[in-house]
Write a structure and sequence with these properties.
It is built from eight helices and eight strands; from the N terminus they run H-E-E-H-H-E-E-E-H-H-E-H-H-H-E-E. It is an alpha+beta fold. It has one domain: Urate Oxidase (Roll). The chain has an eight-stranded antiparallel beta sheet with strand order 1-2-3-4-5-6-7-8. The protein is elongated and about 105 Å long.
Length: about 300
């Protein structure tokens, strides 16, 4: 004989009658498969929630949300359409609680193999933290992607001050010389060119974009490539001396404040996405604090819209 088990969510009413904006689960471990450059199954953490419009409802059925995530893990590769279908099922499965909205946040690290700047035989893996935010409400389906991208930044002010000191040191060294040959100057620079150096630091770009409606993929790799190309000084993996020298040249040719960094990102993203935000954080080597700048665009009309 099968016993009927109690279902508190259905059989009991809440003592305090209040609707709830969001309720669900967080930090659910999932293996999800993404088609980015190559098919990759990534360890993902999920936050899955619905609203509870029924003010008297005791609670939602969380196990139903969990089962939907298990179904989502079987989708290969994962697509925006699969996220939309999962959110639709989540709302349909919580009608006792009068759910009208659902949201799903997926957090994972996207691993990409990056070549060295000049050494053709060298490459290494870089990890890019990603969050996908999918939400379905009566106003429609919204999907956005947040990506963190590391780069290097060299301070323009510090570079100018270093150049001034170097020029003064050069003038003092050759003050009594009637003339100096290019070879003399080159030799002096080899010995004293680092008399004063500008400060540089590892920096971090955080970019959030709205994934275009109808996109068949998330476009994460193209987004990362876009930002790294705009900033021009991406963090490296495996290097030889020739690559390290090339990296030094890139930094010298791309001096930037945080203001410069967010403007570069804005220029790169403006023709691709209608809604985006970009933040630059420079972990200062001069100061004990960070430099920070952010920029946002929410225009509804953009030319040459980028299709993923």
């Amino acid at each position: 004989m099968t016993r009927a088990l109690p279902d508190i969510s259905l059989d009991t009413q809440a003592h305090i009658h209040t609707a709830i904006n969001w309720v669900g689960m967080d930090n659910i471990d999932l293996p999800l498969c993404f088609a980015e450059e190559h098919l990759s199954t990534l360890a993902t953490q999920a936050c899955f929630q619905v609203d509870m419009g029924n003010a008297k409802s005791k609670g939602i059925h969380m196990s139903r949300l969990y089962q939907l995530l298990d179904e989502l893990a079987a989708v290969q590769p994962l697509t925006p359409a699969a996220l939309l279908a999962t959110l639709q099922k989540a709302i349909a499965g919580q009608q006792e609680a009068q759910a009208s909205q659902a949201r799903l946040i997926l957090r994972f690290n996207l691993l990409l193999k990056r070549p060295a700047l000049l050494s053709t035989e060298l490459a290494g893996w870089k990890s890019y933290p990603v969050q996908l935010h999918a939400q379905l409400s009566p106003t429609g389906f919204q999907l956005s992607a947040d990506v963190k991208i590391g780069y290097a930044s060299t301070c323009p002010c510090s570079a100018a001050l270093a150049r001034q000191l170097l020029a003064e040191h050069f003038s003092a060294a050759f003050a009594t010389a009637d003339s100096c040959s290019p070879a003399d100057v080159a030799h002096w620079l080899q010995q004293h060119g680092s008399f004063a150096t500008p400060h540089s630091q590892r920096s971090q770009a955080t970019v959030s974009v709205t994934v275009p409606q109808g996109a068949v993929q998330f476009g994460l790799v193209s987004l990362i490539d876009c930002i790294e190309e705009a900033l021009a000084t991406p963090l490296q993996t495996a290097v030889k001396r020739i690559d390290e020298q090339a990296f030094a040249r890139l930094n010298g040719q791309n001096l930037m404040f945080v203001e410069d960094a967010v403007r570069r990102m804005q220029q790169a993203l403006a023709g691709r996405y209608t809604h985006f935000s970009a933040t630059a954080r420079h972990l200062e080597s001069l100061h004990a604090h960070d430099a920070l700048a952010s920029i946002k665009q929410t225009s509804t009309c953009v030319s040459n819209a980028f299709s993923l």
